[in-house]
């Protein structure tokens, strides 16, 4: 697993490569965790690694559904606000029924769906701004598919960073150590690959 995306051929492949790198960052941060560890919220935040993976997949699904429905609105926009808010809050909790393996599989499946929909999309196509939450601007009618993908990269990057801090608080493992462990790198004076205790 490389530490960064490889060379890209064009804008669309670049956007997808950097989005997919964030998926890989979540997989790296989760490497070697048990379900119980993935549920831990050891920082001032109530977030856990598992909950952040769950949210990342759900967030991406919502935006990709929006791309697929454009220039119309996705069906989810017709859900009553209270119901949508409850579903949104549930994204931030790794329940006892959730497993880390299942959450990572959902992220993998969303990556495949995103790839399929984005490959067929026009980056300049209009994607209507959501009207079902108070934090969306009222003075903009639509964003482009390009904007949506940029936003997804920003959103997932922020949450991958949250997950990185939480993971280090769980067992002291850092992203570079985890990456080195996944790749089976040799130990160096400045990098010791992570191994289970």
Instruction: Work out the helicity level.
Output: 55-70%
CATH superfamily: dinb family like domain
Q: In percent, how much strand structure appears in the residues? A: under 5%
List SSEs in N-to-C order: HHHHHEEHH
Write the layout of secondary structure elements.
Elements: H1 11-30, H2 35-39, H3 49-69, H4 81-90, H5 100-120, E1 126-128, E2 142-144, H6 145-171, H7 175-183
Antiparallel strand pairs: 1-2
Helix pairs in contact: 1-3, 1-5, 1-6, 3-5, 3-6
Plain-language structure description:
With 197 residues, the chain is mainly alpha-helical. It has one domain (11-183): dinb family like domain (Four Helix Bundle (Hemerythrin (Met), subunit A), Up-down Bundle), CATH 1.20.120.450. Helices cover 57% and strands 3% of the residues. The protein has seven helices and two strands, in the order αααααββαα. The protein has helices at residues 11-30, 35-39, 49-69, 81-90, 100-120, 145-171, 175-183; strands at residues 126-128, 142-144. It has a two-stranded antiparallel ribbon. Helix 3 (49-69) packs parallel to helix 5 (100-120) and helix 3 (49-69) packs antiparallel against helix 6 (145-171). It is globular, with a radius of gyration of 18 Å. The mean pLDDT is 94.
Short description:
The protein has 197 residues and is mainly alpha-helical. Helices cover 57% and strands 3% of the residues. The chain has a single domain, classed as Four Helix Bundle (Hemerythrin (Met), subunit A) (Up-down Bundle), CATH 1.20.120.450.
């Amino acid at each position: 697993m490389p530490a960064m995306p490889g060379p890209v051929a064009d804008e669309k492949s670049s956007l997808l490569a950097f989005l997919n790198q964030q998926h890989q960052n979540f997989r790296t941060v989760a490497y070697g965790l048990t379900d119980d560890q993935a549920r831990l919220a050891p920082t001032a935040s109530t977030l856990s690694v598992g909950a952040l993976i769950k949210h990342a997949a759900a967030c991406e699904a919502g935006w990709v559904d929006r791309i697929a429905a454009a220039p119309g609105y996705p069906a989810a926009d017709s859900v009553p606000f209270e119901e949508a808010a409850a579903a949104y809050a549930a994204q931030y909790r790794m329940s006892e029924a959730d497993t880390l393996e299942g959450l990572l599989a959902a992220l993998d499946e969303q990556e495949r769906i995103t790839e399929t929909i984005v490959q067929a999309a026009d980056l300049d196509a209009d994607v209507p701004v959501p009207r079902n939450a108070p934090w969306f601007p009222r003075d903009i009618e639509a964003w482009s598919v390009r904007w949506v993908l940029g936003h997804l990269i920003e959103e997932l990057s922020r949450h991958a960073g949250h997950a990185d801090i939480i993971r280090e608080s769980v067992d002291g493992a850092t992203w570079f150590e985890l990456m080195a462990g996944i790749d089976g790198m040799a130990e160096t004076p400045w990098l010791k690959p992570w191994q289970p205790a």
